[in-house]
Every structure is written in C-alpha cells, then in structure tokens.
Design goal:
single chain; 323 residues; alpha/beta; Rossmann fold; Alpha-Beta Plaits; six-stranded mixed beta sheet; four-stranded antiparallel beta sheet; 36% helix; binds adenosine-5'-triphosphate; binds magnesium ion
Length: 323
C-alpha cells in the first residue's frame, strides 16, 4: 500500500477512557496525516497521557476505537508496536545501565544487529549531548535522563513517534536542542504526535494542534488558523512624548485594512495609543512602515502583545491554560 502525503496514519473514533466516574478521555475523534507533527495541547489532567497510552496500546479504551497505521488498537497491538516509538512522560530508563547500554538494549529488543546498534546509539547520544557520560544512568540529572529517554525512543527509526512532554523539566538550552531534533525528525517525514502543555512549543513546532480540555477536543487546526479564529488580536501599545504625534499616527492607521481598532489612553503624563491588528508578525512591520515611521523619533515607548494559543484557550474556556 503506497501512502500518499495526505494519507491518514492515525484515526480515533469517539475514543473514551473512564476511570470510575472520571472521564479522562471523553469521546475523542481525530485524524492525523502521514508526516504531520500533530500536537495535543492542554492543561494538567486534560487527558493527553491517557490518550497517548491508548494509542500506543498500553491502555485499553472504555469505548470507541482507533487505528494506527491501519491497525485497530483493540486487536492490532503486535503490528502497531513494531512501527511506533514512544517517549513517555514518566522517564523509563534502566538506572543500572549506562547511557549507551540503555539505547542498545532497546535496539536489541527490535532486532537491530549489535554493531549497527552500537554505531547508531553513539550517534544519537552525541546528538543529544550525553555521549561523554560513562557511568550508570542512575547518576544523571533529570534533564539528561529525559534526553536519554528520547534517544531510546528513536533507535529503531520509528514511522510514528509519540512524545509525551519531551521538554518537561529541561533547561532552555536542552529544550532548544530537543526542539531542533524534533524539527529534524519532522523533515524526515516521521509522523509525530506531541503531547504538551507548553503553548510556545506547540505553536513553534506543530503543523496542526488539537486543544484538549477535560477529556474533550475543543478545537483543531494549524496554529495560525486557531489564533485567527479563536484568538485575540495582536496589540501594539505606543506612547508618545506629545499629543500631536499621537494624532498624526492615529490618522495614518485609519485606513490600514488589518488594523481592527485603536483606543487612546493616558497613563501619568504619557499619551498612549493601543492598536489592535490581525495577521502575523509581518503586519507589525507593515504597521510601523505605514503608520509610525515618520514619527518614530517621538515615540517614547512601545510594547507588543502577540495573539497566542493561550488566548485561544482562554477565549474557548474562560480559563488560562495552566490552571
Ligand atoms: N490509571 C489511572 N487511574 C485513575 N485516574 C487516572 C489514571 N490515569 C490518569 N488518571 C486521571 O485521568 C485524568 C487525565 O490524566 P492524564 O495523565 O491523561 O492528563 P495529562 O493531560 O497527561 O496531564 P499532565 O499535563 O499533568 O501530564 C487525570 O485526572 C488523572 O488523574
Ligand atoms: Mg501527561
């Protein structure tokens, strides 16, 4: 079967997992395409890990079904596990093995010949910045353990990769390293399902995002689609030394099509103009060019608040993502 770029690799149909009264996953229907980086974004307890555990055949659903690579999670466990890599939220490493032994152990489980496994493990550990460590992984820092866990999920070159909070607890440098790695995997046409509560991560990496809350998907789309449809406008706040300059700028922006509205306020002695506008970052450049450039020397201060996935969540649920 030849899989075209748009072919569906994962499909869930009204998938549910209840723990007694608690509806952890409550009727999720999704389609994920081949080669897509699809994020499941939601606050703590939303059901992300439970969903991932069902799709990776660790948990049996209460109701509904899903297919992964054409196989049902109810009946096709053996077929599914051959194709998927899983980097779980709870770090799963063998603490009395060294880094490379952990990776080689997983390779052996997948039947990769020993020499090939050694070579691949070395390269992966170099990529993740932990090749130098020769002691038991028990002694690694939390961030190093997480990176090792990630390397273990990649050793057999899976077609589909599940990453459950891969950057949780990482410092900014390690977080960027993991992001770069994910981008690199994406360019190799691997389908990646990323569970995260980090909206910057979801925004910067995903082709599409599903926002999940209390076990239900409340919105699906590209980050831009979601922000355009459910988000807030971007806001540029400009303060001026003189009222006259504010007037000139106000006149200039009246006819800019992507400017939604503006309002004047004054704080202490400063005169401020709050300009709400739509579109991406390009429009901030246009706004400066068309509305502000002549008076730029008279601008006392400028602040920019960008429409974000956090706004989307807030507008859809009335709550912040990190509640
Ligand atoms: N095995 C279990 N038994 C009982 N309740 C469970 C079990 N696993 C998960 N839950 C509950 O299901 C809900 C969803 O949990 P889940 O781990 O899927 O959330 P999550 O979105 O991954 O959250 P986080 O961002 O904190 O990782 C939570 O209320 C959790 O306590
Ligand atoms: Mg989780």
């Amino acid at each position: 079967m030849s899989a075209s770029k748009d072919s569906i690799v994962i499909e869930t149909k009204d998938l549910k997992k209840h723990f007694k009264e608690l509806k952890a996953v409550d009727g999720v229907s999704l389609k994920i395409r081949k080669g897509e980086l699809f994020s499941i974004l939601g606050p703590n307890g939303a059901g992300k890990t439970t969903l991932a555990r069902m799709l990776t055949t660790v948990l049996t659903p209460t109701a509904g079904d899903a297919t992964v690579n054409g196989h049902s999670i109810l009946t096709g466990k053996n077929e599914i596990v051959k194709k998927i890599g899983v980097c779980p939220q709870v770090i799963t490493i063998y603490e009395v093995l060294r880094a490379e032994e952990n990776v080689e152990f997983i390779a052996a489980m997948h039947g990769i010949p020993r020499l090939e496994a050694k070579k691949k493990a070395k390269k992966l550990l170099e990529d993740f910045g932990i090749a130098g460590r020769k002691d038991w992984s028990k002694h690694f820092s939390g961030g190093m353990k997480r990176r090792l866990n990630f390397a273990m999920s990649l050793i057999f070159e899976p077609e589909i990769l599940f990453l459950d909070e891969p950057t949780a607890g990482l410092d900014p440098q390690a977080r960027r390293l993991v992001w770069d790695f994910i981008r690199d995997l994406k360019s190799k046409d691997i389908t990646i399902i990323l569970m995260t509560h980090d909206m910057i991560e979801a925004d910067s990496l995903s082709d599409r995002v599903a926002i999940i809350d209390q076990g239900k998907i409340i919105a699906v789309g590209t980050p831009t689609e979601l922000k355009d449809k459910y988000g807030s406008d971007n806001v540029l706040e400009v303060s001026f030394n003189k009222q006259e300059d504010l007037k000139v700028v106000k006149n200039n922006i009246q006819n800019i099509p992507f400017v939604v509205n503006w309002s004047e306020t004054s704080r202490k002695e400063r005169k401020m103009l709050l300009i709400s506008f739509q579109g991406g970052l390009k429009n901030i450049v246009r706004l400066l060019q068309q509305g502000l450039i002549e008076n730029i020397d008279e601008v006392e201060n400028m602040k920019f608040r960008q429409n974000s996935l956090e706004d989307v969540f807030l507008n859809l649920t009335g709550r912040r993502l990190r509640d």
